[in-house]
Design brief:
The chain is an alpha+beta fold. It has a single domain, classed as 2-Layer Sandwich (Gyrase A, domain 2). Helices cover 24% and strands 43% of the residues. It contains 4 helices and 9 strands; from the N terminus they run βββββββαββααα. The strands form 2 sheets. Strands 4, 5, 6, 7, 8 and 9 form a 6-stranded antiparallel sheet that branches. The protein has a 3-stranded antiparallel sheet with strand order 1-2-3, with no helix packed on it. 31% of the residues are buried.
Length: 228
């Protein structure tokens, strides 16, 4: 209750949620804020479909079990975009099996180093931003996640996956067109004149981390290693 839903550009506020019947009740709103979900994503690889090596990493096509847990929503001011607060929610997790691409980075993990974290997080944003152009889909058809360390092998990793049970061939298209995909991500960042990242190149509207811990220069360096 209290979350904002946009329908054809008009804001509606959630006034009641009937979980048992799967119904949400909305009313027109004049709220001076928007909301975005806070989602925790857990991934478990199930099958290896394909893998190619890069000088500083690998790209893998995998079967994945995805668990998404909405833990709350973030209120943001319409003017200025400042975070006004976070409302906690207690909702059941959503699980599905799908197909995704894993980008594994052969970097020394430094979880306390903001530049390292910004490189991995920035890579996720860049490849996610251009993925719909390569796969021919809507942004909402794909999910993504980044990890400072992910097991088997234990390396920094970024995942982009189909957000439907069984997959719909989008991740497979990204894997097959990986050179074009990574080059487009690199050109997205290097072609923007901003210094530190902006909505044109690095920021994502639904970033669960509120576009924090992003390092444009470090992300460019990582992409160049993967493109080479």
């Amino acid at each position: 209750v209290g979350a904002i839903y946009l329908h054809r550009g008009e804001p509606f506020i959630v006034v009641a949620f009937d979980e048992a019947r799967g119904r949400v009740h909305l009313e027109p709103s004049r709220a001076d804020y928007t909301t975005s979900p806070v989602i925790q994503t857990t991934l478990s690889p199930t099958t290896q479909i394909g893998e190619v090596d890069r000088p500083q990493g690998q790209l893998s096509l995998l079967g994945l079990e995805v668990t998404e847990q909405v833990t709350g929503f973030r209120r943001k001011a319409i003017r200025g975009g400042d975070t006004l607060g976070i409302e906690d929610l207690d909702l059941p997790p959503i699980r599905f099996n799908t197909v995704g691409v894993r980008l594994t980075l052969h970097l020394r993990a430094e979880p306390d180093n903001e530049r390292f974290l910004g490189a991995v997080h920035g890579l996720e944003h860049a490849v996610t931003s251009v993925a719909p152009l390569v796969a021919g889909c809507d942004r909402s058809d794909l999910g993504s996640a980044w990890f400072a360390l992910f097991p088997n092998p234990l390396h920094p990793s970024v995942f982009v996956f189909d957000k439907t049970q069984g997959g719909m061939g989008l991740a497979a298209a990204l894997y097959e067109r990986r050179d074009e995909w990574l080059t487009m991500a690199l050109e997205l960042l290097t072609g923007c004149p901003c210094a530190d990242g902006c909505p044109r190149c690095l920021f994502l509207a639904l970033c669960p981390d509120s576009n924090r811990l992003l390092d444009k220069d470090a992300a460019v360096a990582v992409l160049r290693m993967l493109v080479a």
